[in-house]
């Protein structure tokens, strides 16, 4: 029993890891999953801000021969990060409880002795910390980070590390512990810029302890001077690797201009502090979503813990509340759709309050119950609530749809074809992984239409698809020259920039079509082409083939394979999966209409029957069904 108590946090961490393994994604998932796994495996450069620490550690881990698919191994690393963030979270809060000082005004009320420290029992500390840790581990967004490769899984680990070292320095008499805090911040910033959200926690406790004086300023300056070189060394990975021109070379940070643009995430700054309306929208989303993170039970316990802190330890109360509010109020100014991960620090801070909520409940129950042994099963039942409630929302163990969708697209085109699309979240990101890690249909040239707006992207096309690039070399050079003033915040000619951009897209097709089959994504046809923002020469036609539109220089019938594909949709859906459902069903209907136009009624019926069978919720226009007698 003593051995178990001594290693309870490690055992809890391993239990969390085991439970996480049952919800682990077996393949790529939506958004950046494919890109990030590819960057780790090929030692490339990811989208801004580059995430060098994430990349280097991931590369080392993926080279361990575990006998797993590389994407599964990358996903496993995410589960490990999240599990061990729970370990350091527990260590941090346990350290806090071991050094828990009363508010000065409450010292006399607690007892008449000159004692300013609350004495928690060992059972009270361990049970409360573990209960709060499990609420964090199985909160919705946190749990989701453990299921697939993402930078936020490592970031949760680093958040916990930073908070642990801050508390250790706060309770220590040795000044050198603040230097360790600085180094932990280096690791945080080497992964993700949301590390700045922890600064209020560090600053509040630092000045509570060291006061605002010349000596405290010296400590801060020394900490920065010691830590900053390590951060610079880690970020030197970006230009050093860019010089080697890897397969994935986002931003091509080969010089200071490119590096600074990439490091500061300039292309995403347009969404920061966009407007007051955007902030209100994100705050509304945060508040409406919050109860589902911890369940209403966790929400109530967390509020109890916050009140308990306010009455017993003013410094920790203010530090956590200030950090929580700063984290939320800063993050809501980022106007993006997938903002959930940016709220992770606020969830971690709230979990600290949940721990102290359990501390309070333990006190009350121990007074009411004759036997304290009843408290453990009561707490176990309570912490089981978020596990049961969030399991279906967090689990990605049956997500194969992005692999199936991507492979079906790649397999549905001829050798050396070109695909122009901007389905990053559903197809393009995943295609990087399957093409460059698993060597699946590497002959197919996948071009991201939106990334064609970035000067660095042409270097990557030239590196990976030189023959295609050479066909549009002049157009590419003209566009790069016209976009440079825009990227530098200088005066630029918007009309010339747009003309050059459209010239790149058009000539990408027209100058390659004689040697390579060319395809366009559904979104490009339905949006840009319908709005007249992108056009092909008049003698060109678009033919629906599989999930794409084939570009042809003919009005004749173009045959396509019958819809014998198999897509494995998961039990639980989301907006990304629904997009694929709708897109596939739409393309099948488009193909049926195309068959009808050439009087191939029986073939049209096959496509429509596929829609009815696989996508019964999709509304096929009645006139189409009537035209084939269905």
Automatic annotation (TrEMBL):
Source domain of life: Bacteria
Keyword Transmembrane attached: yes
InterPro entries on file: GT117_domain-containing, TMEM260-like
Keyword entries, A-Z: Membrane, Transmembrane, Transmembrane helix
Residue spans crossing the bilayer: 41-62, 74-97, 126-144, 151-171, 177-207, 219-238, 290-309, 316-336, 342-362, 374-389
UniProt keyword Transmembrane helix present: yes
Protein name, per record: DUF2723 domain-containing protein
């Amino acid at each position: 029993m003593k051995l178990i108590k001594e290693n309870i946090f490690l055992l809890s961490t391993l239990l969390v890891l085991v439970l996480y393994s049952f919800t682990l994604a077996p393949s790529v998932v939506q958004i950046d999953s494919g890109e990030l796994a590819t960057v780790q495996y090929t030692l490339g450069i990811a989208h801004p801000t580059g995430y060098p620490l994430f990349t280097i550690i991931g590369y080392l881990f993926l080279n361990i021969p575990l006998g797993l698919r590389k994407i599964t191994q990358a996903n496993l690393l995410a589960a490990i990060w999240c599990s061990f963030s729970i370990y350091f979270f527990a260590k941090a809060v346990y350290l806090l409880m071991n050094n828990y000082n009363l508010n000065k005004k409450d010292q006399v009320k607690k007892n008449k002795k000159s004692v300013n420290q609350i004495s928690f029992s060992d059972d009270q500390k361990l049970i409360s910390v573990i209960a709060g840790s499990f609420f964090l581990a199985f909160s919705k967004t946190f749990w989701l980070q453990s299921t697939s490769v993402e930078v936020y899984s490592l970031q949760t680990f680093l958040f916990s590390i930073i908070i642990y070292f801050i508390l250790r320095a706060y309770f220590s008499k040795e000044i050198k512990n603040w230097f360790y805090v600085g180094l932990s911040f280096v690791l945080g910033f080497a992964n993700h810029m949301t590390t700045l959200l922890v600064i209020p926690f560090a600053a509040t406790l630092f000045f509570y302890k060291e006061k605002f004086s010349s000596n405290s300023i010296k400590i801060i300056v020394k900490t920065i001077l010691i830590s900053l070189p390590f951060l610079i060394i880690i970020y030197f990975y970006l230009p050093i690797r860019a010089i080697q021109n890897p397969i994935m070379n986002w931003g091509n940070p080969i010089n200071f201009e490119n590096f600074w643009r990439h490091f500061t995430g300039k292309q995403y700054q347009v969404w920061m502090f966009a407007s007051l309306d955007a902030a209100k929208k994100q705050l509304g989303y945060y508040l409406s979503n919050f109860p589902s993170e911890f369940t209403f039970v966790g929400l109530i316990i967390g509020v109890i813990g916050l009140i308990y802190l306010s009455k017993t330890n003013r410094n920790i109360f203010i530090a956590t509340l200030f950090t929580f509010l700063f984290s939320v109020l800063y993050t809501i100014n980022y106007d993006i759709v997938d903002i959930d991960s940016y709220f992770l620090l606020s969830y971690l801070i709230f979990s600290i309050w949940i721990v102290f909520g359990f501390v309070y409940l333990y006190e009350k129950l121990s007074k009411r119950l004759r036997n304290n042994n009843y408290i453990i099963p009561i707490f176990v039942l309570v912490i089981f609530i978020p596990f049961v409630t969030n399991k279906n929302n967090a689990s990605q163990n049956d997500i194969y749809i992005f692999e199936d969708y991507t492979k079906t697209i790649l397999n549905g085109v001829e050798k050396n074809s070109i695909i122009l699309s901007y389905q990053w979240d559903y197809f393009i990101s995943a295609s990087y992984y399957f093409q460059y890690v698993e060597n699946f249909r590497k002959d197919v040239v996948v071009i991201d239409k939106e990334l064609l707006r970035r000067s660095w992207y042409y270097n990557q096309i030239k590196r990976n698809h030189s023959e295609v690039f050479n066909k549009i070399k002049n157009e590419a050079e003209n566009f790069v020259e016209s976009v440079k003033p825009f990227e530098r915040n200088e005066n630029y000619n918007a009309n010339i920039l747009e003309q050059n951009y459209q010239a790149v897209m058009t000539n990408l097709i027209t100058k390659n079509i004689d040697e390579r089959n060319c395809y366009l994504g559904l979104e490009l046809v339905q949006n840009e082409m319908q709005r007249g923002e992108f056009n092909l020469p008049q003698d060109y036609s678009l033919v629906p083939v599989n999930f794409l539109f084939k570009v042809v220089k003919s009005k004749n019938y173009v045959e396509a394979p019958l819809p014998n594909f198999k897509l494995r949709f998961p039990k639980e859906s989301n907006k990304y999966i629904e997009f694929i459902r709708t897109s596939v069903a739409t393309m099948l209907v488009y193909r049926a209409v195309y068959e009808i136009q050439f009087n191939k009624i029986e073939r049209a019926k096959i496509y429509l029957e596929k829609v009815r069978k696989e996508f019964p919720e999709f509304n096929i226009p009645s006139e189409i069904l009537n035209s084939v007698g269905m």
